[in-house]
Amino acid sequence: MFPDIGAVFGPYTYLVSEILFGSVALWLLVRAEALSRAAKTLLVIYPIGFVWDWYTLTIGVFAIPLRTGVELLGIPLEEHIFIVVVPALVLGIHENLLRW
After folding, report:
1. What is the pTM of this model?
2. What distance in Å separates the CA atoms of residue 18 and residue 96, rounded to the nearest whole number?
3. How far is CA 70 from CA 2, 45, 57, 79, in A?
4. Taking the domains of the chain in order of start, what are their residue ranges?
5. Where does residue 92 rank: exposed (0-12), middle (13-18), buried (19+ CB within 10 A)?
6. Which of 13, 47, 57, 71 has the most CB atoms at less than 10 Å from its CB?
């Protein structure tokens, strides 16, 4: 049903998807003029997401096969980006709905 982008991007697949969705989140936040407000929220949420990700990866809840292999503080680079992108996308959608 969906194209296998893993065959195209290999170990960079997760990173590419984070960049794609992060770009959408950034566009939505800029469009809603909510970038600075969202940044404050993301700064508060990030440590919670970091601990949550670290814990779930440590106990083996999930594995990430299509990643770069670069780790920062015991968490894959892509997960650090994910911790920011997901709430940023939610905030971007929310802020745009408020303006609608």
Report:
1. 0.90
2. 21
3. 27, 22, 14, 10
4. 33-100
5. buried
6. 13
Instruction: State the DSSP string of 70-98.
Output: -EETTEEHHHHHHHHHHHHHHHHHHHHHH
Report how far residue 90's alpha carbon sits from residue 96's, in angstroms, rounded to the nearest whole number. 10
The CA distance from 14 to 5, in Å, is 10
How big is the chain by its Cα radius of gyration, in Å?
A: 15
Q: How far is CA 53 from CA 42, 74, 79, in A?
A: 15, 10, 7
Least Cα distance to 79 among 32, 31, 17 occurs for 17
- The torsion angles phi and psi of 72, rounded to 5 degrees, stand at -125, 120
For 15-45, what is each residue's pLDDT tens digit? 999 999 999 999 999 999 999 999 999 999 9
Long-range CB pairs of 55-61, under 8 A, 24+ apart, other chains included: none
